[in-house]
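Batch manifest line 428
LIGAND: flavin-adenine dinucleotide
JOB: complex structure
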Amino acid sequence: MKVAVIGGGPMGLAAAYELLARGHSVTLYEADDRLGGMSASFMFDGIRIERYYHFICKSDQPLFDMLEELGIADTLRWRVTRMGYYYLGKIRDWGEPIALLKFPGLGLVSKIRYGLLAFTSTKRRDWTKLDSIDAVTWLKKWVGDRAYEVLWHPLFDLKFYHYTPNLSAAWIWSRLRRVGTSRRNIFQEEMGYLEGGSDTFLERIAQVIQEKGGVIHLRRRVEEVLIEDGRVSGVRTSGGSEHYDRVISTIPMPYVSKMIPALPEGTRAGYDSVNNIAVVCVLVHLEQPLTRYFWLNISDPEIDIPGFIEYSNLNPGGGHIVYAPFYIPGEHPDYQREDGFFIDKVRRYLRAVNPDLPDSAILKIAAGRYRYAQPICEPEFAKRLPPISPGIDGLFVADTCYYYPEDRSISESVQLGRKLARMAAGDG
Ligand SMILES: Cc1cc2nc3c(=O)[nH]c(=O)nc-3n(C[C@H](O)[C@H](O)[C@H](O)COP(=O)(O)OP(=O)(O)OC[C@H]3O[C@@H](n4cnc5c(N)ncnc54)[C@H](O)[C@@H]3O)c2cc1C
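JOB STATUS: finished
ARTIFACT:
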């Protein structure tokens, strides 16, 4: 069978890999000049690094299985990492019981309630009850109004803006659980990375795909999925039209209805109904460490990012690297601002968090952006999505929304990519 895979992020690559393993002929189309999508890398001040920060958690089993199959499991590294909180003008420890007890601005009862939430979130398996309630109500029930205002409200406002009151509790819980279970013990968080970054995985899977006869086209945007008599007949790109028996799309949902105009109106409306947050991510190469924390949450009225991610405190393999993400709804006027607007802010924020950091320690600073970086998952989110097989023979459509309540991750995309391939092959 001849299959086209649209999108060369982890999901598209995993789908192509799985189809080839099942003996099918595969062509993968990627619009960008490189593979990886959100997990792609670029050269930054002489360092090959992901455009956006990436860490691996202990629950990322589908990724571990894939690394094993690709023969690169030995590139996986684990490191004890620290979490901090910049609050009331000072950096404080965060993410373990003693730090919680010492944290200012919260009473003992709030702290105990917060600890219970963190603990039970790692133990919970069934999320169905959380699916229909909103995260703010759920969190306030667990930790109380005051702790919500101190710990969650500022972070939510900076990440989800006006969507905050209507986020799925199941979705927020799954994020708490993913990070909360990635620990060496109750006092130590442990995160993973690949030697060489996500590129190690991307390059190896692309190599295997090509060795097995798969074709990868870069800079080749699929302009239309062709449909004849209710079934897929091929794809049209700038290079012309090509016949396929099956088409798998893994591109972000908001692009789908334009790319497949022949879909029924209701299905197209389903794809268009998903809201997404964009990210402008400022990347900084420093001469010295900013802090000793991998993840520094920030709650400060003068700083409008939810935190700094000091990537080199996870992966020490290349300079002192800090990411500063500005999450912004794509339709917000700030998203149209030039990179310099965000870069200037980050220069100020770096100094606020570490007043001893001289300006000269900033070796290089740059900004990158991704329009559809974070789908917004409301209560009962899965119900609004059209099915993966949206009623056109031979067509399969999914993106990161389709592993709700799990948050976007390389591991989840790999798992879903393989499932899409099994469905397209008629084996699952
Ligand atoms: C700021 C940020 C931080 C993150 N942190 C982590 C983390 O710590 N750990 C983790 O595991 N994950 C993290 N992720 C998520 C992870 O990067 C994604 O889950 C993963 O890359 C999704 O892969 P995908 O293939 O599903 O989609 P995408 O990465 O979105 O890939 C889709 C691809 O489709 C291509 N495309 C679009 N339109 C077309 C078209 N018409 N024709 C052909 N190609 C097209 C795009 O160019 C893109 O390459 C993060 C993401 C962001 C943005």
